[in-house]
Automatic annotation (TrEMBL):
SUPFAM superfamilies: Mob1/phocein. It comes from Talaromyces stipitatus (strain ATCC 10500 / CBS 375.48 / QM 6759 / NRRL 1006) (Penicillium stipitatum). The lineage of its organism: Eukaryota, Fungi, Dikarya, Ascomycota, Pezizomycotina. Keywords: Kinase, Metal-binding, Transferase, Zinc. Pfam families: Mob1_phocein. The keyword Glycoprotein does not apply. This is Protein kinase regulator (Mob1), putative. One of its GO terms (molecular function) is kinase activity. It comes from the Eukaryota.
Length: 262
């Protein structure tokens, strides 16, 4: 079994993962258009984390200086291109727009999508059924952060995912990392943070596919999971966010087929 952790082994990752206790709330999150009626019917009863409070998730977001499009308008652009049926088109940076703003808008949307999808199977993912955060027996993900878990720490899948989603939410709500005020630039560390966020969020997809896909099938959610993940894969490919041959781990073959089919 390969353990993905910080500074150990050929499959090691410098980020591991992070731990913050977060309260869960029953709160509806509006999914993108391709998460159709089946998912929309679930959203009122899902066990999901509170969405980030950053302005990107709330309505019109004022443009920074020298930029003519708000975050709200970028999100509308993404929704419109998704509605056109072309995922490859939907992931491209709109002409004349800031790449960091585009990455920020999309990581918020992917956070919400993953939160919603995982919320549909939480009753089947418990410390008893998933005592380790794995994607097959070959890949285990350990949690590490700069505050509470400074060493890679083994934990159950639901605990790991709860900490992961809280870590993402905390970063999105951090004005120093995700500035929402006009004229405030993104920090120089933003590209590295975005890569880390996409890398860690991928692990939720991997766990669902490898350990809960039978539940997804029973719920009739496989088209929505597959489309959401393909959107995620194409976005990462378009913006070169994957690093290292082991980035996709157990889903490498699926990712390869998705990239070839678009």
């Amino acid at each position: 079994m390969s353990t993905l952790s910080a500074g150990t082994g050929t499959l090691s990752h410098s980020d591991s993962t992070k731990t913050i206790k977060a309260r869960h709330h029953y709160l509806p999150i509006e999914p993108p258009s391709y998460l159709s009626t089946a998912v929309r019917g679930l959203k009122g009863s899902l066990h999901v984390l509170t969405p980030p409070s950053n302005a990107r998730t709330k309505g019109p977001f004022k443009p920074r200086s020298s930029r003519g499009t708000t975050s709200y308008q970028l999100r509308k652009f993404a929704e419109e291109t998704l509605g056109s049926g072309s995922l490859r088109k939907a992931v491209k940076l709109p002409e004349g727009e800031d790449v960091n703003e585009w990455l920020a808008v999309n990581v918020v949307d992917f956070y919400n999508q993953i939160n919603l999808l995982y919320g549909s199977i939480t009753e089947f993912c418990s410390p008893q059924s998933c005592p380790e955060m794995k994607a097959t027996d070959e890949f285990e993900y350990l949690w590490q952060d700069s505050e509470n878990y400074k060493r890679p720490t083994k934990m159950s899948a639901p605990e790991y995912i709860e900490h992961l989603m809280a870590w993402v939410q905390g970063n999105i709500d951090n004005e120093q990392m995700f500035p929402s005020r006009t004229g405030v630039p993104f920090p120089k560390t933003f590209p590295a943070l975005i890569r880390q966020m996409f890398k860690r969020l991928y692990r939720v997809y991997a766990h669902i596919y490898c350990h809960h896909y039978h539940v997804i099938l029973k719920l009739g959610l496989e088209p929505h999971l597959n489309t959401s993940f393909k959107h995620y894969v194409l976005f990462i490919d378009e913006h070169t966010l994957a690093s290292g041959k082991d980035f996709w781990g157990p889903l490498g073959d699926l990712v390869e087929s998705m990239l070839k089919s678009d």
